[in-house]
Amino acid sequence: MKAYELDYSLGKKCFKGFVAEPENMSTDTPVVLIVHMWAGRVDFVDKKAKYFAKQGYIGFAIDMYGDGKIGQSINENTKLMQNFIDDRSLLQKHVQAGFKAISKIKYANQNKVVALGYCFGGLCVQDLARVNTKVKGIVSIHGLMLQADNIDQGKFKAKVLLLNGSDDPMVSDGHWYKLRDELNHAKCDWQKHDFGGVVHAFTNPHANDKAMGTVYSKSADQRSNTLIGHFLNEVIG
């Protein structure tokens, strides 16, 4: 496996992505684009890129904040993420810049891309599907579900997989119902899997804050990996 950082830009702003390439790549290698949680492009998503490279895909973890910025506290993480929650146009521009950076990866097939996001990243890939007609599929894993008030709704063309903890305190029923209505209005191919008794951040082995509602679940993590594998095979082979 070959792994390296990939610099890309949007205007004058620089970003630091991470690429993991499988062995024996062809000129038609599908891509799994990975969007990080609120802290930034941490080791967790780089490891995910390597995991998908082992499955035969190019794994590409993008950098939403720029310059590889990583928050060092809950307050800093919140501030970093909130800037994008408050300005969805900015969020959409940054996630689109990550998608466009795929063109810098040799042998990557931009017509076979699934975007996968965790927590804040889940919201980012939802917005990517709202503004990008080339992405073939998105996977939102314990992702936030917030409407994008800067664009018309119902633009989803990609296939959609939502993996959600049934007791996630950061995803209200109201938020989900609005997203469901948007997906139905778009007439896209979507599916949602709720894991019973599971809260937020269930794929992160270090999550263990019951008061905050972020707790790892080994069974939900394993089941989500299985569902993601089936989805990737269906959408990009």
Description:
By secondary structure, the protein is α/β, with parallel strands linked by helices. It has one domain: Rossmann fold, CATH 3.40.50. The protein contains 6 helices and 10 strands, in the order βββαβααβαββαβββα. It has an 8-stranded mixed beta sheet. The chain has a two-stranded antiparallel ribbon with strand order 9-10. Helix 3 crosses helix 4 (120-131). The two termini are 20 Å apart. The model has no long low-confidence stretch (mean pLDDT 96).
Mean pLDDT: 96
CATH superfamily: Alpha/Beta hydrolase fold, catalytic domain
Could you name the CATH class? Alpha Beta
Please state roughly what percent of the residues sit in beta strands, choosing from under 5%, 5-15%, 15-25%, 25-35%, 35-45% or over 45%.
25-35%
- Succession of helices and strands: EEEHEHHEHEEHEEEH
Helical fraction: 25-40%
The CATH topology: Rossmann fold
Count of DSSP H/I helices: 6
Strand order of the largest sheet: 1-2-4-3-5-6-7-8
From the spread of the alpha carbons, the general shape counts as globular
Number of domains: 1
- Radius of gyration (CA) equals 16 Å
DSSP strand tally: 10
Structural class: alpha/beta
Summarize the structure.
The protein is an alpha/beta fold. Helices cover 35% and strands 26% of the residues.
Write the layout of secondary structure elements.
Elements: E1 2-10, E2 13-21, E3 29-35, H1 43-54, E4 58-61, H2 74-86, H3 88-100, E5 108-118, H4 120-131, E6 137-141, E7 159-165, H5 173-186, E8 190-195, E9 208-209, E10 214-215, H6 218-236
Parallel strand pairs: 3-4, 3-5, 5-6, 6-7, 7-8
Antiparallel strand pairs: 1-2, 2-4, 9-10
Helix pairs in contact: 3-4
